[in-house]
Amino acid sequence: MNMTTSLNSDSPQPDHFELSVIMEARRSQSAWADEEWSALGVTAGSQFDAHEEEVQEIFHEEDVRRLLFPGFRIMLHVDECESYYHNLMAPHPSCYVVADIDEKSQPIPFLVTLSFDEAHAYLEGDQEVYAVDIPPELYRWTEVFVLTHYVPQKKRKRKLDNWKKQSGSRHEAG
Questions:
Q1: H/E element holding 18?
Q2: Domain span including residue 93
Q3: Overall number of domains in the chain
């Protein structure tokens, strides 16, 4: 794993995290769908060898099954710092799991992000977006990144033009 230095040069920070997503399917009470899906969470760290990238069923009991989707990598970007900052300051900071829906109506995760702005853009594009808790090590990593790279812009009041003084803009009909 590549390392970059942060505020404390004694403790280098990883430039990315390997993640897995845990999705859960429950039998639906609706006549329109067989299952209801939700994202239970993400796990930080590689759960498998590099060659093991296949989805695995990790739990199955009557009406509930859980699938582990390995092979995700999350990186932080300086131009998304404001979004990370607002996410960390929210009452419930989240990782966002973005998924496509396959022909069987099952969500297939393809992205994990900490940027609310990025997740919202996918939501407007009709992908499924699930908010899950941030693992503590991912929260601390993002916090260090934001403290290192984010400088809030001071909000300034816009000075309005006095339109009453603009007398030279009248048009005369003639």
A1: strand 17-27
A2: 16-151
A3: 1
